[in-house]
Specification:
Shape: globular
Strand order of the largest sheet: 3-9-8-7-6
Number of helices: 4
CATH architecture of the largest domain: 7 Propeller
CATH topology of the largest domain: Methylamine Dehydrogenase, Chain H
Structural class: mainly beta
CATH class of the largest domain: Mainly Beta
CATH superfamily of the largest domain: YVTN repeat-like/Quinoprotein amine dehydrogenase
Oligomer: single chain
Number of domains: 2
Radius of gyration: 28 Å
Amino acid sequence: MPSSDLPGPPVASLTWPRIRSHPLIPVVLLAAASVMFFLIWGADDDEGMQQQRNIRTVIYVGIPLITAFLWFVVLSRAPTRIRMTVFAVVMALVALAAATLKIQGVDGDLIPIVRWRWTTPPDRAMAPLEVAAQHGKAGDVPAAPVVVAETEANDFPQFLGRSRDGVIRSIKLKRDWTAHPPKLLWRREIGAAWSGFAVVGNRAVTQEQRGDDELVVCYDLKTGEPLWSHGDKARYDTTIAGIGPRATPTISGGWVYTMGGTGTLNCLELATGKRIWSVDTLADHGAKLLDWGMAGSPLVEGDQVIVPTAGTHALSAYDREAGKRLWVAGPGPTSYSSPVIMELLGQRQIVMQNQYTVTGHALGDGRLLWMHETPGHHPAVAQPVRLSDNRVVVSRGYGTGSDGFELTRDASGGIVTHSLWKNVYLKAKFATVVERDGYLYGLNDGTLTCLDGATGERAWRGERYGHGQLLLVGDLLLIQAESGDIVLVEASPKEFREVSRFTAFEEKTWNSPTLAGKYLLVRNDREAACFELAVEE
Protein backbone atom coordinates (compact mmCIF):
# COMPACT_ATOMS: atom_id res chain seq x y z
CA MET A 1 0.00 0.00 0.00
CA PRO A 2 1.40 3.39 -0.88
CA SER A 3 2.55 5.30 2.13
CA SER A 4 0.30 8.19 1.15
CA ASP A 5 -2.73 5.96 1.73
CA LEU A 6 -1.76 5.09 5.30
CA PRO A 7 -3.96 6.61 7.97
CA GLY A 8 -2.39 9.11 10.35
CA PRO A 9 -2.82 12.48 12.04
CA PRO A 10 -3.30 15.56 9.82
CA VAL A 11 -0.09 17.47 8.88
CA ALA A 12 0.07 21.05 10.24
CA SER A 13 0.19 23.79 7.63
CA LEU A 14 3.62 25.44 7.31
CA THR A 15 2.37 28.40 5.33
CA TRP A 16 2.28 31.93 6.80
CA PRO A 17 -0.85 34.01 6.80
CA ARG A 18 -1.07 36.32 3.85
CA ILE A 19 1.40 39.18 4.45
CA ARG A 20 -0.18 42.63 4.69
CA SER A 21 2.13 44.44 2.27
CA HIS A 22 0.09 47.49 1.30
CA PRO A 23 1.36 49.67 4.25
CA LEU A 24 4.90 49.12 2.98
CA ILE A 25 4.22 50.25 -0.59
CA PRO A 26 4.17 54.04 0.12
CA VAL A 27 7.34 53.64 2.20
CA VAL A 28 9.15 51.98 -0.71
CA LEU A 29 7.90 54.59 -3.18
CA LEU A 30 8.86 57.46 -0.88
CA ALA A 31 12.34 56.00 -0.34
CA ALA A 32 12.85 55.52 -4.08
CA ALA A 33 11.71 59.09 -4.80
CA SER A 34 13.99 60.43 -2.06
CA VAL A 35 16.99 58.56 -3.42
CA MET A 36 16.33 59.82 -6.96
CA PHE A 37 15.94 63.38 -5.69
CA PHE A 38 19.14 62.99 -3.67
CA LEU A 39 21.09 61.73 -6.69
CA ILE A 40 19.87 64.58 -8.89
CA TRP A 41 20.01 67.44 -6.37
CA GLY A 42 23.22 66.31 -4.69
CA ALA A 43 25.15 65.50 -7.85
CA ASP A 44 26.59 68.99 -8.26
CA ASP A 45 28.97 69.97 -5.47
CA ASP A 46 28.41 73.65 -6.30
CA GLU A 47 24.85 73.41 -5.02
CA GLY A 48 25.25 70.98 -2.15
CA MET A 49 27.92 70.02 0.31
CA GLN A 50 29.40 66.80 1.54
CA GLN A 51 28.00 67.17 5.07
CA GLN A 52 24.47 67.65 3.75
CA ARG A 53 24.80 64.65 1.46
CA ASN A 54 25.96 62.52 4.37
CA ILE A 55 23.04 63.68 6.50
CA ARG A 56 20.59 63.05 3.65
CA THR A 57 22.05 59.59 3.13
CA VAL A 58 21.35 58.73 6.77
CA ILE A 59 17.82 60.10 6.49
CA TYR A 60 16.95 58.51 3.16
CA VAL A 61 18.33 55.13 4.18
CA GLY A 62 17.57 55.17 7.90
CA ILE A 63 13.93 56.22 7.86
CA PRO A 64 12.84 53.53 5.33
CA LEU A 65 14.73 50.86 7.29
CA ILE A 66 13.12 51.91 10.57
CA THR A 67 9.70 52.11 8.91
CA ALA A 68 10.14 48.66 7.33
CA PHE A 69 11.15 47.25 10.73
CA LEU A 70 8.05 48.71 12.42
CA TRP A 71 5.85 47.46 9.58
CA PHE A 72 7.18 43.93 9.94
CA VAL A 73 6.81 43.87 13.73
CA VAL A 74 3.40 45.57 13.95
CA LEU A 75 1.50 45.36 10.65
CA SER A 76 2.92 42.54 8.52
CA ARG A 77 0.73 39.70 9.95
CA ALA A 78 3.79 37.44 9.99
CA PRO A 79 3.64 34.75 12.72
CA THR A 80 3.87 36.30 16.16
CA ARG A 81 6.84 34.14 17.14
CA ILE A 82 8.84 35.32 14.10
CA ARG A 83 7.94 38.97 14.63
CA MET A 84 8.90 38.88 18.30
CA THR A 85 12.17 37.10 17.50
CA VAL A 86 13.14 39.75 14.94
CA PHE A 87 12.17 42.50 17.40
CA ALA A 88 14.24 40.94 20.20
CA VAL A 89 17.31 40.42 17.99
CA VAL A 90 17.26 43.98 16.66
CA MET A 91 16.79 45.48 20.13
CA ALA A 92 19.60 43.29 21.49
CA LEU A 93 21.97 44.46 18.73
CA VAL A 94 21.06 48.11 19.43
CA ALA A 95 21.64 47.62 23.16
CA LEU A 96 24.95 45.85 22.52
CA ALA A 97 26.15 48.67 20.27
CA ALA A 98 25.12 51.29 22.84
CA ALA A 99 26.92 49.39 25.62
CA THR A 100 30.18 48.76 23.74
CA LEU A 101 30.61 51.63 21.26
CA LYS A 102 30.70 55.41 21.49
CA ILE A 103 31.07 58.28 19.07
CA GLN A 104 34.38 60.00 19.79
CA GLY A 105 34.20 62.98 17.46
CA VAL A 106 33.41 63.34 13.76
CA ASP A 107 35.43 64.12 10.69
CA GLY A 108 34.98 67.31 8.69
CA ASP A 109 32.09 65.79 6.74
CA LEU A 110 30.24 64.84 9.96
CA ILE A 111 30.97 61.13 9.63
CA PRO A 112 31.15 59.73 13.20
CA ILE A 113 34.43 58.34 14.50
CA VAL A 114 33.48 55.25 16.52
CA ARG A 115 35.60 53.84 19.36
CA TRP A 116 35.10 51.14 22.00
CA ARG A 117 33.28 52.63 24.98
CA TRP A 118 36.04 51.55 27.36
CA THR A 119 38.70 53.41 25.34
CA THR A 120 40.20 56.21 27.45
CA PRO A 121 40.38 59.59 25.65
CA PRO A 122 44.01 60.08 24.56
CA ASP A 123 44.47 63.27 26.59
CA ARG A 124 43.46 61.51 29.83
CA ALA A 125 45.83 58.61 29.16
CA MET A 126 48.90 60.84 28.75
CA ALA A 127 51.75 60.89 31.20
CA PRO A 128 52.33 64.18 33.06
CA LEU A 129 54.22 66.74 31.02
CA GLU A 130 57.80 67.11 32.24
CA VAL A 131 59.05 70.65 31.77
CA ALA A 132 61.61 72.95 33.31
CA ALA A 133 58.91 75.23 34.73
CA GLN A 134 55.21 74.75 35.44
CA HIS A 135 52.94 77.61 36.43
CA GLY A 136 49.28 77.72 37.30
CA LYS A 137 49.11 81.22 38.73
CA ALA A 138 51.07 84.43 38.92
CA GLY A 139 54.17 84.36 41.08
CA ASP A 140 57.76 85.45 41.38
CA VAL A 141 59.68 83.40 38.86
CA PRO A 142 63.23 84.27 37.86
CA ALA A 143 63.17 85.65 34.33
CA ALA A 144 65.05 83.81 31.62
CA PRO A 145 66.30 85.54 28.48
CA VAL A 146 63.97 85.32 25.51
CA VAL A 147 65.79 83.71 22.59
CA VAL A 148 66.24 86.20 19.76
CA ALA A 149 65.04 85.13 16.34
CA GLU A 150 67.61 84.42 13.65
CA THR A 151 65.66 86.84 11.46
CA GLU A 152 62.56 88.56 12.72
CA ALA A 153 60.80 88.07 9.37
CA ASN A 154 60.80 84.31 9.97
CA ASP A 155 58.74 84.54 13.16
CA PHE A 156 55.16 83.26 13.05
CA PRO A 157 53.85 85.10 16.10
CA GLN A 158 50.12 84.57 15.72
CA PHE A 159 47.31 82.76 13.95
CA LEU A 160 47.95 82.66 10.16
CA GLY A 161 51.30 84.44 10.43
CA ARG A 162 52.61 87.94 10.89
CA SER A 163 49.80 89.66 8.94
CA ARG A 164 47.10 87.18 9.99
CA ASP A 165 46.23 86.55 6.35
CA GLY A 166 47.83 83.15 5.77
CA VAL A 167 50.49 84.62 3.46
CA ILE A 168 54.21 83.92 4.08
CA ARG A 169 56.37 86.51 2.35
CA SER A 170 59.80 85.88 3.87
CA ILE A 171 60.88 82.68 2.07
CA LYS A 172 60.54 80.69 -1.13
CA LEU A 173 60.19 76.92 -0.92
CA LYS A 174 61.84 74.39 -3.19
CA ARG A 175 59.10 72.63 -5.10
CA ASP A 176 60.50 69.12 -5.52
CA TRP A 177 60.16 67.18 -2.27
CA THR A 178 61.44 64.04 -3.98
CA ALA A 179 64.80 65.69 -4.72
CA HIS A 180 64.70 67.75 -1.50
CA PRO A 181 62.66 65.72 1.01
CA PRO A 182 61.43 67.44 4.19
CA LYS A 183 63.62 66.51 7.16
CA LEU A 184 61.83 65.40 10.33
CA LEU A 185 63.40 67.18 13.30
CA TRP A 186 61.10 65.81 15.97
CA ARG A 187 57.74 64.19 16.61
CA ARG A 188 55.97 63.90 19.96
CA GLU A 189 52.68 63.12 21.64
CA ILE A 190 50.63 66.21 22.43
CA GLY A 191 47.45 67.00 24.32
CA ALA A 192 44.13 67.38 22.50
CA ALA A 193 43.31 70.77 20.94
CA TRP A 194 42.65 72.46 17.61
CA SER A 195 45.14 75.20 18.43
CA GLY A 196 48.10 75.95 16.15
CA PHE A 197 51.64 77.04 17.06
CA ALA A 198 52.88 80.60 17.45
CA VAL A 199 56.67 80.96 17.06
CA VAL A 200 59.13 83.67 18.07
CA GLY A 201 62.82 82.80 17.96
CA ASN A 202 63.17 79.16 18.92
CA ARG A 203 60.08 79.15 21.15
CA ALA A 204 56.94 77.52 19.81
CA VAL A 205 53.78 77.95 21.91
CA THR A 206 50.49 76.11 21.59
CA GLN A 207 47.50 75.08 23.70
CA GLU A 208 46.49 71.56 24.65
CA GLN A 209 44.17 69.59 26.93
CA ARG A 210 45.54 67.00 29.33
CA GLY A 211 42.81 65.58 31.53
CA ASP A 212 41.12 68.36 33.47
CA ASP A 213 43.95 70.82 32.80
CA GLU A 214 43.91 73.24 29.90
CA LEU A 215 47.55 73.99 29.19
CA VAL A 216 49.61 76.58 27.38
CA VAL A 217 52.91 74.86 26.54
CA CYS A 218 56.14 76.28 25.13
CA TYR A 219 58.37 73.90 23.14
CA ASP A 220 61.83 74.31 21.71
CA LEU A 221 61.29 74.82 17.99
CA LYS A 222 64.18 72.62 16.82
CA THR A 223 64.12 69.84 19.42
CA GLY A 224 60.50 69.63 20.57
CA GLU A 225 61.55 69.65 24.22
CA PRO A 226 58.98 71.36 26.47
CA LEU A 227 60.39 74.49 28.12
CA TRP A 228 57.45 75.52 30.31
CA SER A 229 53.72 75.05 30.75
CA HIS A 230 50.88 76.99 32.32
CA GLY A 231 47.73 75.19 33.47
CA ASP A 232 44.14 76.18 34.21
CA LYS A 233 41.44 73.89 35.57
CA ALA A 234 39.14 73.94 32.56
CA ARG A 235 37.96 71.44 29.97
CA TYR A 236 35.98 71.86 26.78
CA ASP A 237 34.69 68.49 25.57
CA THR A 238 31.80 67.72 23.22
CA THR A 239 31.14 64.75 20.95
CA ILE A 240 31.04 66.69 17.69
CA ALA A 241 33.47 69.54 18.36
CA GLY A 242 36.11 67.48 20.14
CA ILE A 243 38.30 68.12 23.16
CA GLY A 244 40.39 71.06 24.25
CA PRO A 245 41.09 74.69 23.35
CA ARG A 246 40.63 75.90 19.79
CA ALA A 247 42.49 79.22 19.45
CA THR A 248 46.14 79.79 18.50
CA PRO A 249 48.30 81.84 20.91
CA THR A 250 49.56 85.32 20.04
CA ILE A 251 53.11 86.40 20.99
CA SER A 252 53.87 90.09 21.29
CA GLY A 253 56.48 92.08 23.21
CA GLY A 254 57.81 89.10 25.14
CA TRP A 255 54.35 88.04 26.31
CA VAL A 256 51.95 85.28 25.20
CA TYR A 257 48.20 85.87 24.95
CA THR A 258 45.84 82.89 24.79
CA MET A 259 42.08 82.32 24.63
CA GLY A 260 41.03 79.02 26.19
CA GLY A 261 38.19 76.85 24.99
CA THR A 262 35.97 77.93 27.89
CA GLY A 263 36.79 81.64 27.61
CA THR A 264 39.88 82.16 29.81
CA LEU A 265 42.07 84.95 28.43
CA ASN A 266 45.65 84.64 29.72
CA CYS A 267 48.71 86.85 29.49
CA LEU A 268 51.91 84.87 30.16
CA GLU A 269 55.60 85.66 30.09
CA LEU A 270 57.21 84.13 27.00
CA ALA A 271 60.51 83.47 28.79
CA THR A 272 59.08 81.56 31.76
CA GLY A 273 55.35 80.94 31.37
CA LYS A 274 54.62 83.00 34.47
CA ARG A 275 51.08 84.37 34.39
CA ILE A 276 50.91 88.17 34.24
CA TRP A 277 47.11 88.38 34.33
CA SER A 278 44.01 86.33 33.51
CA VAL A 279 40.35 87.14 32.77
CA ASP A 280 37.31 84.86 32.58
CA THR A 281 35.72 86.55 29.57
CA LEU A 282 32.40 84.71 29.93
CA ALA A 283 31.97 85.90 33.52
CA ASP A 284 33.23 89.37 32.54
CA HIS A 285 30.41 89.68 30.00
CA GLY A 286 27.76 87.60 31.76
CA ALA A 287 27.67 85.34 28.70
CA LYS A 288 27.23 81.67 27.91
CA LEU A 289 29.85 79.53 26.17
CA LEU A 290 29.47 79.21 22.41
CA ASP A 291 28.35 75.80 21.16
CA TRP A 292 31.76 74.99 19.63
CA GLY A 293 33.80 76.73 22.34
CA MET A 294 35.68 80.02 22.22
CA ALA A 295 37.84 79.86 19.09
CA GLY A 296 38.93 83.43 18.29
CA SER A 297 42.68 84.06 18.57
CA PRO A 298 43.73 87.24 20.44
CA LEU A 299 44.76 90.24 18.33
CA VAL A 300 47.36 92.61 19.82
CA GLU A 301 47.18 96.18 18.55
CA GLY A 302 49.08 98.90 20.37
CA ASP A 303 48.37 98.63 24.09
CA GLN A 304 45.25 96.51 23.58
CA VAL A 305 44.38 92.83 23.30
CA ILE A 306 41.25 92.42 21.17
CA VAL A 307 39.21 89.20 21.33
CA PRO A 308 35.82 87.92 20.21
CA THR A 309 33.51 87.62 23.19
CA ALA A 310 30.20 85.86 23.72
CA GLY A 311 27.19 87.89 24.74
CA THR A 312 25.51 91.00 23.36
CA HIS A 313 28.74 92.37 21.87
CA ALA A 314 31.01 90.60 19.40
CA LEU A 315 34.35 92.17 20.35
CA SER A 316 36.10 93.46 23.45
CA ALA A 317 39.49 94.92 24.20
CA TYR A 318 41.67 94.53 27.29
CA ASP A 319 44.70 96.46 28.43
CA ARG A 320 47.63 94.30 27.34
CA GLU A 321 49.64 94.99 30.51
CA ALA A 322 46.95 94.96 33.19
CA GLY A 323 44.07 92.91 31.74
CA LYS A 324 41.50 95.63 32.42
CA ARG A 325 38.56 95.70 30.01
CA LEU A 326 38.72 98.87 27.90
CA TRP A 327 35.76 98.65 25.53
CA VAL A 328 33.13 96.42 23.93
CA ALA A 329 31.82 96.84 20.41
CA GLY A 330 29.90 95.30 17.56
CA PRO A 331 26.53 93.58 17.48
CA GLY A 332 26.50 90.05 18.81
CA PRO A 333 26.45 87.19 18.59
CA THR A 334 30.05 86.55 17.71
CA SER A 335 31.14 83.42 15.90
CA TYR A 336 34.39 81.45 15.55
CA SER A 337 36.47 83.78 13.37
CA SER A 338 39.27 86.03 14.71
CA PRO A 339 39.67 89.82 14.44
CA VAL A 340 42.17 91.09 11.85
CA ILE A 341 43.71 94.47 11.00
CA MET A 342 43.02 95.77 7.47
CA GLU A 343 43.57 99.07 5.72
CA LEU A 344 40.33 99.97 3.96
CA LEU A 345 39.45 103.32 2.37
CA GLY A 346 42.84 104.55 3.58
CA GLN A 347 42.09 103.75 7.24
CA ARG A 348 43.60 100.99 9.39
CA GLN A 349 40.79 99.24 11.22
CA ILE A 350 39.71 96.03 12.93
CA VAL A 351 37.61 93.72 10.74
CA MET A 352 35.60 90.87 12.21
CA GLN A 353 33.24 88.25 10.77
CA ASN A 354 30.45 87.63 13.25
CA GLN A 355 27.47 85.30 13.18
CA TYR A 356 25.25 87.55 11.05
CA THR A 357 27.50 90.46 10.08
CA VAL A 358 30.96 91.56 9.02
CA THR A 359 32.03 94.71 10.86
CA GLY A 360 34.79 97.31 10.73
CA HIS A 361 35.91 99.03 13.94
CA ALA A 362 38.08 102.04 14.70
CA LEU A 363 41.40 101.43 16.39
CA GLY A 364 41.60 102.71 19.93
CA ASP A 365 37.95 102.61 21.00
CA GLY A 366 36.35 99.94 18.78
CA ARG A 367 33.80 102.39 17.40
CA LEU A 368 31.69 100.79 14.67
CA LEU A 369 32.71 102.17 11.25
CA TRP A 370 30.58 99.99 9.00
CA MET A 371 28.55 96.80 9.00
CA HIS A 372 27.77 94.36 6.20
CA GLU A 373 24.99 91.84 6.76
CA THR A 374 25.67 88.20 5.96
CA PRO A 375 22.46 86.33 6.77
CA GLY A 376 22.81 82.71 7.75
CA HIS A 377 22.68 80.57 10.85
CA HIS A 378 25.80 78.51 10.08
CA PRO A 379 29.06 79.13 11.99
CA ALA A 380 31.53 81.65 10.56
CA VAL A 381 35.11 80.41 11.03
CA ALA A 382 37.25 81.67 8.14
CA GLN A 383 38.92 85.08 8.26
CA PRO A 384 37.74 87.99 6.07
CA VAL A 385 40.07 88.53 3.10
CA ARG A 386 41.16 91.96 1.85
CA LEU A 387 41.09 92.23 -1.95
CA SER A 388 41.87 95.94 -2.31
CA ASP A 389 41.52 99.26 -0.52
CA ASN A 390 37.74 99.01 -0.71
CA ARG A 391 36.92 95.36 -1.34
CA VAL A 392 36.57 92.42 1.06
CA VAL A 393 35.54 88.79 0.68
CA VAL A 394 34.05 86.59 3.38
CA SER A 395 33.25 82.90 3.16
CA ARG A 396 31.71 80.25 5.34
CA GLY A 397 30.88 76.58 5.03
CA TYR A 398 27.76 74.47 5.52
CA GLY A 399 26.44 75.46 2.08
CA THR A 400 26.55 79.24 2.63
CA GLY A 401 29.36 80.22 0.23
CA SER A 402 31.23 83.48 -0.39
CA ASP A 403 30.31 87.16 -0.56
CA GLY A 404 32.52 89.75 -2.25
CA PHE A 405 31.48 93.25 -1.21
CA GLU A 406 32.62 96.85 -1.71
CA LEU A 407 32.96 99.73 0.74
CA THR A 408 32.18 103.32 -0.32
CA ARG A 409 31.63 106.61 1.47
CA ASP A 410 28.24 108.29 1.38
CA ALA A 411 27.53 112.02 1.25
CA SER A 412 27.96 112.39 5.00
CA GLY A 413 31.34 110.64 5.03
CA GLY A 414 30.01 107.42 6.50
CA ILE A 415 30.87 104.01 5.07
CA VAL A 416 28.30 101.86 3.30
CA THR A 417 28.68 98.41 1.75
CA HIS A 418 27.09 96.51 -1.10
CA SER A 419 27.67 93.06 -2.51
CA LEU A 420 29.45 92.71 -5.83
CA TRP A 421 28.92 88.97 -6.11
CA LYS A 422 27.75 85.98 -4.12
CA ASN A 423 28.04 82.29 -4.92
CA VAL A 424 28.45 78.82 -3.45
CA TYR A 425 31.58 77.97 -5.45
CA LEU A 426 33.81 78.55 -2.40
CA LYS A 427 32.41 77.44 0.95
CA ALA A 428 35.23 77.79 3.48
CA LYS A 429 34.32 75.76 6.55
CA PHE A 430 37.51 75.71 8.66
CA ALA A 431 40.32 77.06 6.51
CA THR A 432 40.80 80.73 5.68
CA VAL A 433 40.88 81.69 2.01
CA VAL A 434 44.13 83.23 0.70
CA GLU A 435 44.58 85.78 -2.08
CA ARG A 436 47.26 86.13 -4.77
CA ASP A 437 47.16 88.57 -7.70
CA GLY A 438 43.42 89.08 -7.36
CA TYR A 439 42.54 85.37 -7.24
CA LEU A 440 41.21 83.50 -4.23
CA TYR A 441 42.29 79.99 -3.22
CA GLY A 442 40.44 77.97 -0.63
CA LEU A 443 38.92 74.65 0.34
CA ASN A 444 35.38 74.57 -1.01
CA ASP A 445 33.73 72.09 1.32
CA GLY A 446 37.09 70.29 1.27
CA THR A 447 37.87 70.63 -2.47
CA LEU A 448 40.61 73.08 -3.46
CA THR A 449 39.09 75.83 -5.61
CA CYS A 450 40.30 79.00 -7.34
CA LEU A 451 37.98 82.00 -7.86
CA ASP A 452 38.42 85.34 -9.61
CA GLY A 453 38.16 87.80 -6.73
CA ALA A 454 36.72 90.54 -8.93
CA THR A 455 33.80 88.57 -10.35
CA GLY A 456 33.48 85.45 -8.19
CA GLU A 457 33.78 83.28 -11.29
CA ARG A 458 35.47 79.95 -10.77
CA ALA A 459 38.83 79.45 -12.47
CA TRP A 460 39.17 75.78 -11.53
CA ARG A 461 38.31 73.02 -9.08
CA GLY A 462 41.17 70.81 -7.96
CA GLU A 463 41.61 67.80 -5.74
CA ARG A 464 39.68 67.11 -2.57
CA TYR A 465 41.90 67.54 0.51
CA GLY A 466 39.15 67.41 3.11
CA HIS A 467 38.66 69.97 5.83
CA GLY A 468 42.28 70.90 6.40
CA GLN A 469 44.13 74.22 6.36
CA LEU A 470 46.37 76.13 3.97
CA LEU A 471 49.01 78.87 3.69
CA LEU A 472 50.26 80.82 0.69
CA VAL A 473 54.07 80.70 0.43
CA GLY A 474 55.24 82.75 -2.55
CA ASP A 475 53.59 81.17 -5.58
CA LEU A 476 52.77 77.91 -3.79
CA LEU A 477 49.87 76.78 -1.64
CA LEU A 478 51.05 74.74 1.34
CA ILE A 479 48.08 72.58 2.31
CA GLN A 480 47.65 70.56 5.47
CA ALA A 481 45.07 68.01 4.32
CA GLU A 482 42.54 66.59 6.77
CA SER A 483 44.09 63.16 6.16
CA GLY A 484 47.45 64.33 7.58
CA ASP A 485 49.22 64.80 4.22
CA ILE A 486 51.22 67.96 3.48
CA VAL A 487 50.77 69.11 -0.12
CA LEU A 488 52.25 71.78 -2.39
CA VAL A 489 50.02 73.17 -5.15
CA GLU A 490 50.78 75.95 -7.62
CA ALA A 491 48.89 79.17 -6.84
CA SER A 492 47.97 79.92 -10.44
CA PRO A 493 44.54 80.61 -11.95
CA LYS A 494 45.53 78.84 -15.18
CA GLU A 495 45.11 75.29 -13.91
CA PHE A 496 45.22 73.06 -10.86
CA ARG A 497 48.65 71.50 -10.46
CA GLU A 498 49.89 69.57 -7.42
CA VAL A 499 53.69 69.52 -7.30
CA SER A 500 54.71 67.67 -4.09
CA ARG A 501 53.30 65.71 -1.18
CA PHE A 502 54.31 63.78 1.92
CA THR A 503 52.49 62.28 4.91
CA ALA A 504 52.90 63.92 8.31
CA PHE A 505 50.10 62.17 10.25
CA GLU A 506 47.76 59.23 9.89
CA GLU A 507 44.94 60.75 11.94
CA LYS A 508 42.38 63.50 11.34
CA THR A 509 44.13 66.89 11.20
CA TRP A 510 42.20 70.14 11.53
CA ASN A 511 44.89 72.36 13.05
CA SER A 512 46.39 75.24 11.12
CA PRO A 513 50.08 74.72 10.14
CA THR A 514 52.89 77.08 11.12
CA LEU A 515 55.81 77.98 8.85
CA ALA A 516 58.57 79.81 10.73
CA GLY A 517 61.25 80.33 8.12
CA LYS A 518 62.18 76.87 6.87
CA TYR A 519 60.62 75.12 9.88
CA LEU A 520 57.16 73.64 9.35
CA LEU A 521 55.28 72.93 12.57
CA VAL A 522 52.17 70.79 12.27
CA ARG A 523 49.91 69.14 14.81
CA ASN A 524 46.53 67.58 15.37
CA ASP A 525 44.73 66.52 18.55
CA ARG A 526 47.19 63.67 19.23
CA GLU A 527 50.71 64.55 18.09
CA ALA A 528 52.93 67.34 16.81
CA ALA A 529 55.92 67.35 14.48
CA CYS A 530 58.49 69.75 13.06
CA PHE A 531 59.98 69.41 9.57
CA GLU A 532 62.82 71.36 8.02
CA LEU A 533 61.89 72.28 4.46
CA ALA A 534 64.30 73.05 1.64
CA VAL A 535 64.17 76.71 0.66
CA GLU A 536 65.58 78.78 -2.18
CA GLU A 537 68.56 80.91 -1.21
